[in-house]
């Protein structure tokens, strides 16, 4: 740990906190400085000019990253009969109904994304206090309450990312691994930024995208010139 501490201390010492990077340059710099002993995630965060406490200013949605996230996503599906079989065939990791609900109530949540068919929402709704705080509650607006189980599972496995503004108006996501090429990371970043732009709420006033930052899991953040996002 001391070695890692020295590495980070050196990175922060050389960091020009006033420098603004073009989006691609920020990604390249974060990638180059991701030297931990594991494949770090490259992350992007955006500070938006919104107040999520107001319903008409909430920013929430889902976006498919063209080059995936580099993570293995475990998908859980609440479904019965043919739809349960469809989920299993599509590669879902855990599928069930009452039996799956019982496991969730016991705290055995062995999935990172949760999908449900509409007829299952009466059952799933009773798990809201458990799934909700973990960001796992299926939502029709995000495509996770659907009869197209096959498509939803495939999208989740392929690198679909959910986003939701926090109290301070910040949205963030992992856009891939440091082992990805800079081009692949930039494509993913642009897809995420475009999704945030499209999700601009009607109630947002003034400057929408105020600040953008790119970093790796164990590295410092690099400020992005907001004007470069449209380049």
From TrEMBL:
Gene3D superfamilies found in the cross-reference section: 3.30.190.20, 3.40.50.790
Family assignment from sequence similarity: Belongs to the universal ribosomal protein uL1 family.
NCBIfam families, A to Z: rplA_bact
Organism ancestry: Bacteria, Pseudomonadati, Pseudomonadota, Alphaproteobacteria, Acetobacterales
Keyword Ribosomal protein annotated: yes
KW Lyase (keyword) present: no
HAMAP family: Ribosomal_uL1_B
Entry GO terms, CC: ribosome
A Pfam family that the UniProt record links to this protein: Ribosomal_L1
Keyword terms: Repressor, Ribonucleoprotein, Ribosomal protein, RNA-binding, rRNA-binding, Translation regulation, tRNA-binding
Protein name: Large ribosomal subunit protein uL1
SUPFAM superfamilies: Ribosomal protein L1 (SSF56808)
Summary of subunit composition and partner proteins: Part of the 50S ribosomal subunit.
């Amino acid at each position: 740990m001391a070695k890692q501490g020295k590495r980070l201390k050196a990175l922060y010492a050389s960091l020009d906190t006033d420098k603004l990077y073009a989006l691609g340059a920020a990604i390249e710099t974060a990638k180059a400085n991701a030297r931990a002993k594991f494949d770090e995630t490259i992350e992007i965060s955006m500070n938006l000019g919104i107040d999520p406490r107001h319903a008409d200013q909430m920013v929430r949605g889902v976006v498919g990253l063209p080059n995936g996230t580099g993570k293995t996503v475990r998908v859980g599906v609440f479904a019965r009969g043919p739809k349960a079989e469809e989920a299993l065939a599509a590669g879902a990791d855990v599928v069930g109904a009452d039996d799956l609900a019982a496991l969730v109530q016991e705290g055995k949540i062995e999935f990172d994304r949760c999908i449900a068919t509409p007829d299952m929402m009466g059952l799933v709704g009773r798990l809201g206090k458990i799934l909700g705080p973990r960001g796992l509650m299926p939502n029709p607006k995000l495509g996770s309450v659907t009869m197209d189980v096959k498509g939803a599972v495939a999208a989740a496995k392929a690198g679909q990312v959910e986003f939701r503004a926090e109290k301070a108006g910040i949205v963030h996501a992992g856009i891939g691994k440091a082992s990805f090429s800079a081009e692949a990371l930039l494509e993913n970043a642009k897809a995420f930024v475009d999704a945030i732009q499209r999700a601009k709420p009607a109630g947002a006033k003034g400057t929408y995208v105020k600040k953008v930052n790119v970093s790796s899991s164990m590295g410092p953040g690099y400020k992005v010139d907001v004007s470069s996002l449209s380049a």
